[in-house]
Design a protein that fits this description.
five-stranded antiparallel β-sheet; 4 domains; alpha/beta; Rossmann fold; 486 residues; 20 strands; Beta-Lactamase; elongated; five-stranded parallel β-sheet
């Protein structure tokens, strides 16, 4: 038989003896009673010892058992408390229940049977509450500790709860997110309609790919899985558990791999095309050269036509050479290089175009000397492609080209920003595709070549843009060495 430890708090010694006598008369149960005659003594014992049950007198001099109960709640003590009072009082009873008292007994009506039943129910209820609390804490820990975003939605699809990963993904505080519907954060109208229909129909679904708009305007690609649950107390009321798995990085890696494969295919095609063009072009050049040599002393209309053919043949040959060079990163010859010098050389190469369109160039460079491993000629081409692309997109006379650099412990970051028309959201994922161009006569190989070169250097390219507000291209490269800050 287990002994139940009891903390009896009563400032009246006669009542103490009556209560302990009542406890002794309970059959088949042993009690270990500790008496606290004052409020302060009870407070000390609550802090120092564990008790299975507490019997608190309502009146404790200047204090009450309810005051003691409030302290116990503040200390997060889980001991079930039975409040004892000299007479019944609905107000006290209601207040006690509000503070979490296990039971409320009138001393004059106290008998062993009633006290035993109250103690048994109170301890049983406390054990059930402890098990429920531990279960809630366990599942709350799983909920909060999940690396995936987990949300609870009400029957209309509005956020009812969200874990830390969900708040980080969406970029909102919890209070802000609980004012929103999940469908409002989705970008694609077809996906919005699909999601809303499934919520209305109370369907379970998984693998719904969607673009989610975060608080800062960035787009996150997520896979949504949702499960519909009935409320335990109301069968006709439901809520949804939605898990949002962020696949933005994976999608970006897949896209970059696809672009690399397309670029490799484009290079193979261009090499074949270049070979097929150069062979007949060489024959044309030889024939025209021979004819010009035969008629060099004659100033005739034929000579003029031959010179036109020769100039255009040479122009075609140069175009083929430029096309092959721009599409083929080849093997890198890495050497320590100053990225700021490469950036200035790229600007110098584009100086005529910048001057012709009256573009203003603003620089904000990192002050400390630094070095990267680079194939200078190829990396200069990558920078030049972005600069020329930005220049051609801006209006003549009002264009502003902003160049900025900074470095972290491991990376050099170069940002090239323009104030052109920006890039439509639907086109951002396509701009690095070979043969995709936003320019009328563009070949669509410049940015694809840039991406290929930067990847070959172990770096990456990021793009941010808003229609009507320009675009920013960021090249992130690993740092070889970094000098001391000036």
């Amino acid at each position: 038989m287990n002994t139940i430890s009891v903390l009896l708090v009563d400032d009246d010694e006669d009542d103490y003896f009556l209560t302990t006598e009542c406890l002794r008369d309970i059959r088949d149960q042993k009690f270990d009673v500790t008496w606290a005659a004052t409020y302060n003594e009870a407070l000390y014992l609550l802090n120092e010892q564990h008790f299975d049950i507490g019997l608190f007198d309502y009146l404790l001099g200047a204090r009450t058992g309810l005051d003691l109960l409030r302290i116990a709640n503040d200390l997060r003590l889980r001991t079930p408390i039975i409040l004892l009072t000299g007479k019944g009082d609905v107000t006290i009873d209601t207040e006690a229940l509000g503070l979490g008292v296990a039971d409320y007994l009138v001393k004059g009506d106290l008998d062993p049977e009633k006290l035993e039943r109250s103690i048994r129910y109170s301890i049983g209820r406390a054990a059930a509450q402890k098990a429920l609390r531990e279960s809630e804490e366990k599942y709350r820990g799983i909920f909060e500790g999940s690396m995936d975003a987990i949300c609870l939605l009400n029957s209309a699809g509005k956020f009812a709860d969200a874990n830390s990963a969900a708040l980080e993904l969406c970029g909102y505080s919890k209070a802000e997110l609980l004012q929103k519907d999940l469908v409002d954060l989705l970008e694609n109208e077809t996906v919005k309609l699909n999601f809303s229909q499934r919520i209305v129909q109370k369907e379970n679904f998984r693998d719904l790919e969607a673009e989610l708009i975060a608080a800062d305007g960035s787009i996150q690609t997520v896979i949504i899985a949702s499960t519909c649950h009935q409320m335990p107390t109301q069968a006709d009321e439901v809520f949804f558990q939605a898990i949002l798995h962020n696949i933005t990085r994976r999608k970006k890696a897949e896209q970059e791999l696809l672009i690399a494969e397309k670029m490799a295919s484009a290079v193979r095609f261009l090499r074949m095309l270049g070979h097929e063009i150069r062979n007949p072009l060489m024959n044309i050049d030889l024939a025209v050269g021979q004819l010009l040599a035969d008629y060099k002393e004659q100033e005739s209309e034929l000579t003029e036509f031959l010179q036109i053919i020769q100039r255009n043949s040479q122009r075609i040959g140069k175009l083929v050479t430029d096309l092959l060079q721009s599409s083929n990163t080849g093997q890198l010859h890495l050497q320590p290089a100053d990225p700021h010098e490469l950036l200035e050389q790229a600007l110098y190469t584009a100086a005529d175009r910048i001057s012709l369109k009256k573009i203003t160039v603003l620089r904000n460079y990192h002050s400390a000397p630094l070095s990267i491993d680079a194939d200078s000629e190829k990396l200069k081409i990558a920078l030049l492609n972005i600069i020329i692309n930005a220049v051609e997109m801006m209006e003549s006379g009002t264009g502003v080209l902003q160049l900025g650099t900074l470095c972290t412990n491991t990376s050099f970051i170069c940002s090239i920003k323009d104030n052109g028309p920006g890039i439509a959201r639907s086109q951002i994922n396509k701009i690095f595709d070979p043969y995709f161009s936003r320019k009328m006569n563009g070949l669509g190989l410049g940015l694809a070549s840039t991406l290929s070169i930067v990847h070959a250097h172990g770096g990456r390219v990021e793009v941010s843009s808003e229609e009507g507000a320009g675009a920013t291209f960021s090249i992130i490269l690993p740092i070889l060495t970094k000098g001391k800050e000036e």
